Amino acid sequence: MNRQQFYQWMNDPASLNSDSLSDLQQLALDYPYFQTARLLHLLNLRQLQDYRFDQELRRVAALAADRKRLREWLGILAE
Q: Can you give the pTM of this predicted structure?
């Protein structure tokens, strides 16, 4: 994964797929307080309807600086 690819996922979360899941998971493990990486990983799990979504949502919500913003992002993907 490179910087441009990460920016693309930030600008267009709908482009997340099964290939991006492992990259984002590794990034979240390497940098546990990198909120954007955790959020994109969560959105990726939701988009793929992965069983780990609920568990990761609890982690991301606990570390989120602004839960209102988290709800907005989750709503964006649902549309």
A: 0.88
